[in-house]
Design brief:
Length: about 725
């Protein structure tokens, strides 16, 4: 029949368009009665059959969708479905009037059908919402410009192409980010494209879309965001004021633009004199938007100072002796400081000054000195600045003395008759005082001879050597009793050794551009060292920096970092990094202890060695063990030769035919032990000659045993020279 043919054509078109799927519920085909006594007028029958066919297409379009998916709104489809179900039940005996009324009912139900949803093409999540009875509207936040035309799709398969209405409007909602707004409109007389044959749209609404998108990136100054004040974007930036009160010439925005800063003329302090600050302002324009950065450079006024004496032994051990406690003020320092005496044995150790100070202590110079008895003196010149910026000089004199050598009256048979220096009895001679110190005035030579009593045997013993001191021991024996005498020679400290003269290179911030984890972050990205054009991160708080290296770190963008450094001992330095967060709200501190390595201060090798004043001909610095022939294995001397200006130290110990020489580098990291196995060659000759030229010390001794008499003389000649 004709109606069945119309159904088939419409249904086929819907399936081909992808609109219909397996129906959730089925609608039986309806063949309205064709009896002549039902429809008496041809026009009435044709109108009814046509409207019934249209209604069936709409009903089956909804029925083909999965459960819960609506092509039309619930209310509008219910009206159509009720009219359709009524019409398809009409049977024999229905008058023309009933058919006409039913036809009109179907027409009205079709006309009031309303699509359940509308969306922007390719953006089904952007739904248009009904506003009243005849307007669809949506505010569309899109990622970029959609173009001048936008397509809208309805759930019943219609498409509108709507056009831009008017010009775009742009506003800066955040500094650096521009928001653009565009309107699209389609009035009610706009005809949609029918995507599915047979599903005509009677209700054509007005459409209004407001699209907006943003371009650019948020611009900050040192990590600080701008806020709009009137017509100007403003922000505040805090930076640290360096020790020299210098300030940056410009502030760098996050978009790479540098803006010059106009600074106030003077550095000011607060009412308590604790905070030093200087203010400035940077202004500019970006895309027609005025901006202003207010900059305050400040720091805590700090004239604190701490002074320590660093004591280093011949075996490379170091300790610190407090002179001025941490936190002391430079302006309040005492001018004379005498430290408690150390034990006499410490006379031969090495002593230097270590100073740690705040930003307003500008310069510290130290001049070492030497007084009788080996007393070390240090004249320290300190230049500091007050809160008004005026510089002042402070002098501090420090003395480190030593206790007298102890008297020991035991083992009297082994007491020497004297120790002669340049033909005279050594100052302060007492046969029961075993340790003596000679304080040299310069490079003058000394001839030292132990003066034994009858029947005594004197053997040169251990030696301890640093750049400016030498300690020689003698063991005296008689009738089973023994004593050990020592003489320490201490020279003025006029030429600094390599470790004392070392100054670290300028440190480097190798980053300063990476974004901090958060605006108030005060940690550094990393610390490490920079050498040969490459930065190496060290994960530890204490680490070594190789030859030619510089202390380095990585800060984050917007952080201000102030670094202070102080020598701990030898080649070991402490770096204190005070960090101001990018937003200027917090400060933090990172402390690292590093040991610098240089070629000379990392050296711990001898250049040679002498036995009984004869240089070992086959000595090689990298060979650590030797067999040595001497005249008398019980009475021989060992003279290590080394470069004293490297700062290394040497100690020698003899025991049971073995002599061990221990060498420690100035940085304390390298230690080398040379072992010498000693055996006799000609026992009839007990002549002993020894030299210690590595520290400018030459020792000459002679022991001859004949019957019950022993004549022994040792000559100690001090000369300043480097072997």
């Amino acid at each position: 029949m004709k109606v069945t043919k119309i159904f088939s054509v419409a249904l086929c078109a819907m399936v081909c368009a992808g609109i219909l799927a397996s129906p959730a519920w089925a609608v039986e085909s309806v063949n309205p009665p064709q009896s002549n006594n039902i429809v008496t007028h041809t026009d009435t029958g044709n109108d009814f059959r046509m409207m019934l066919s249209r209604a069936q297409v709409y009903v089956e379009a909804q029925s083909a969708k999965p459960m819960g998916v609506q092509v039309y709104t619930t209310d509008s489809f219910l009206v159509l479905n009720q009219a359709y179900q009524y019409a398809r039940q009409l049977g024999a005996g229905v008058s023309d009037e009933i058919y006409a009324q039913t036809t009109e009912r179907l027409r009205q139900a079709i006309d009031q059908l309303t699509p359940n949803s509308w969306w922007i093409a390719d953006h089904k999540d952007i739904q248009l919402h009904p506003q009243g009875s005849n307007l669809l509207k949506v505010d569309w936040a899109c990622g970029s410009s959609p173009g001048t035309d936008v397509d809208v799709i309805s759930s019943d398969g219609h498409k509108w192409r709507i056009h831009q209405s008017g010009s775009d409007t742009s506003t800066m909602e955040q500094f650096g980010i521009t928001k653009t707004t565009r309107r699209y409109t389609a009035p009610t007389n706009t005809s949609p494209v029918q995507l599915i044959p047979g599903l005509a749209l009677s209700h054509v609404p007005e459409i209004l879309i407001t699209a907006s998108w943003s371009t650019g990136n948020v611009i900050t100054a040192n990590g600080n965001s701008f806020t709009l004040s009137g017509s100007t974007w403003k922000t505040n930036v805090k930076v640290m004021l360096p020790a020299d009160n210098s300030v940056p010439a410009s502030v760098r925005l996050s978009n790479g633009i540098s803006v010059p800063i106009t600074w106030s003329d003077d550095v000011k302090s607060d009412v308590d004199g604790k905070i030093m600050s200087r203010s400035g302002v940077a202004t500019g324009s970006l895309a027609g938007n005025q901006f202003e950065v207010s900059v305050v450079a400040s720091r805590t006024y700090d004239q604190s100072i701490a002074i320590n004496v660093v004591r280093s032994t011949a075996d490379g051990q170091s300790s610190r002796i407090p002179v001025i406690a941490a936190g002391s003020k430079a302006s309040e320092l005492v001018e004379h400081k005498v430290l408690p005496d150390l034990d006499y044995a410490a006379t031969a150790d090495s002593y230097t000054i270590s100073v740690d100070h705040g930003a307003d202590v500008l310069k510290v110079d130290t001049r070492p000195g030497l007084r009788k008895g080996g007393i070390r003196t240090f004249d320290i010149s300190i230049i500091y600045r007050d809160t008004a910026g005026t510089q002042h000089n402070k002098m501090v004199h420090v003395e480190q003395g030593f206790k007298p050598a102890e008297r020991k009256s035991d083992n009297p048979e082994a007491a020497l008759n004297g120790i002669m220096v340049n033909g005279h009895l050594i100052d302060g001679w007492d046969r029961d005082v075993l340790d003596y110190t000679i304080t040299a005035h310069g490079d003058e030579p000394y001839k030292i001879s132990p003066k034994p009593a009858d029947g005594q045997t004197v053997t040169a013993g251990d030696v301890r050597q640093t750049a400016y001191t030498t300690v020689q021991e003698w063991t005296v024996t008689k009738h089973g009793q023994s004593r050990v005498y020592s003489v320490s020679v201490v020279r003025p400290h006029t030429v600094p050794t390599a470790d004392e003269a070392f100054k670290p290179s300028d440190l480097i911030d190798v980053d300063g551009k990476s974004t901090a984890p958060r605006p108030d972050y005060t940690g550094l990205k990393s610390t490490g060292f920079f050498v040969d054009g490459k930065y190496t991160v060290s994960p530890d708080d204490t680490y070594q920096i190789p030859i030619g290296g510089q202390f380095a770190y990585e800060s984050f963008s917007g952080q201000t970092v102030l670094v202070s450094q102080a020598r701990i001992k030898g080649m070991t330095w402490k770096y204190t990094l005070d960090v101001l967060s990018p937003d200027g709200s917090r400060t933090g501190q990172t402390v690292r202890t590093v040991t610098f390595i240089t070629e000379s201060t990392h050296r711990a090798t001898l250049t040679g060695v002498r036995f009984d004043n004869k240089e070992l001909s086959d000595f090689k610095p990298n060979v650590l063990e030797y067999q040595v022939n001497v005249n008398n294995p019980d009475q021989y001397t060992v003279t290590p030769l080394f470069d004293r200006q490297t700062g290394m130290s040497v100690s020698t110990h003899k025991n049971n035919g073995v002599a061990q020489v221990n060498v420690v580098s100035a940085d304390g990291l390298e230690k080398t032990t040379y072992t010498f196995h000693v055996k006799a060659t000609d026992k009839s000759n007990s002549k002993i000659i020894d030299q210690l030229p590595a520290t400018g010390v030459t020792l000459l001794g002679l022991a001859i045993t004949a019957g019950i008499a022993l004549i022994f003389s040792i000559y100690l000649l001090l000369k300043k020279r480097t072997q």
